[in-house]
Amino acid sequence: MHLVAIGGSDAGISAALRARELDPGVEVTVVVADRYPNFSICGIPYHVSGEVADWRSLAHRTVADLEATGMVLRLDTVARRIDVADHGLLVTGPGGAEERLAYDALVVGTGAVSVRPPVEGLVGAGALGAEDGVHMLHSMDDTFAVTRTLEERRPSSAVVVGAGYIGLEMAEALTTRGLAVTQLEQLPEVLPTVDPALGALVHEQLVAHGVDVRTSTTLEGVARADDGLEVRARGAGGDRVTLRTDMVLVVVGVRPDAELAAAAGATLGIRGALVVDRAMRTNLPDVFAAGDCVVTHHRLLGDTYLPLGTTAHKQGRVAGENAIGGSRRFAGSLGTQVVKVFDMVAARTGLKDAEAVSVGLHPRTVGFEGDDHKAYYPGSHRVRLRTTGDLATGRLLGVQLFGHRHAEVAKRVDIAAAAIFAELCVDEVSDLDLSYTPPLGSPWDVVQGGAQAWVRETAGAGA
């Protein structure tokens, strides 16, 4: 049997590894469009900041590690066309020659591409690019372009467009490099994946470290200027905003890269992502898909589009197993995410109120604040927490946290994610047998304190 995987990032490599793990007799070929298989895209900001000095350290596994598993890597090889009827994949190799790869099963892991806002200077014939100091950031080649600008042009200022996870991390990275950073976000608050009350705390952290944050500000154009670049935007009250800067980084999200499979007849769904079932099968025979190019099953929302590295790894593993005859199902995502912003960390899992209402639930969110460990032991930090539960059933729906980077925020959001995955009620969170010692925690963890606060505040409240 010959399994071909398209894409050398999380989903494609995970599929290949799982297939080889289960059946060493399976022939596995991975088609990688660039020279950087299995690199951590999530680690890019920390290379840009200088905290990860060698870009090679971003590789989860080296090429030699991957080839040692028995897979064949086809680097600098672009997938051009899927011939469904003939079970063939047309590719173009490093030298430009076309070749047909026959497959018994195919896993599409083409991922996503950066969204380029449709504004002057970013689209059309006169669009500016990396050579002008205007950057996107979603691949290793993008990373090298950014570091070239930093090293060769020695910019003193930058505008970051977008204040989601990557935008926040890059604002920190460029500030760490010594640049004066202005951050533009068209929504009323930064990090819109959490409630504005926590987003405001992230905002404060950015400002405290010198970032000029402009919320409710929409990008309208980028142009060359005598002394660098001119960024034009419109502020909250409709006022025009003009900024002069040395470089611009646009990180306003991604869209699924689904054109290859769609051209072969694959069904598209939410936001143009490939439709797959829980086994990661497309509607095409013997064609599976996984990662940022597919619709994701969310355990509370149903089908959605949720491009996350953790999800891509899991989906790829399922696709690889099923492509060689398995029967595994993707268990679903909860959108669990965490981000470090300078000295603080924000995290979320599950649903916010509006998301819960959209699927017919009756949410109530209750805030709570507690210490990460017993306050009498030196070095304790306060953690802000928001717990969302369903008034009709008492089920835990979501948790959001904000606290110091040493307050184990990531551990605590994982506790909440496990509880939601297990379909616990909010009150049942208090029953979890969690670890305790004064330097590290409390008899009642902050997550449990938040659950108890929710139960107290909603006592007697019905849907």
What is the secondary structure topology, with strand pairs?
Elements: E1 2-6, H1 10-22, E2 27-31, H2 44-48, H3 63-68, E3 72-74, E4 78-83, E5 88-92, E6 98-102, E7 105-108, E8 112-114, E9 134-135, H4 140-153, E10 157-161, H5 165-176, E11 180-184, H6 196-208, E12 212-214, E13 218-225, E14 228-234, E15 240-245, E16 247-250, E17 254-256, H7 259-263, E18 287-289, E19 296-298, E20 302-304, H8 309-323, E21 337-341, E22 344-350, H9 353-358, E23 363-371, E24 382-390, E25 396-404, H10 409-421, H11 446-458
Parallel strand pairs: 1-2, 1-7, 2-3, 7-18, 9-16, 10-11, 10-16, 11-12
Antiparallel strand pairs: 4-5, 5-6, 8-17, 13-14, 14-15, 19-20, 21-22, 22-25, 23-24, 24-25
Helix pairs in contact: 1-8
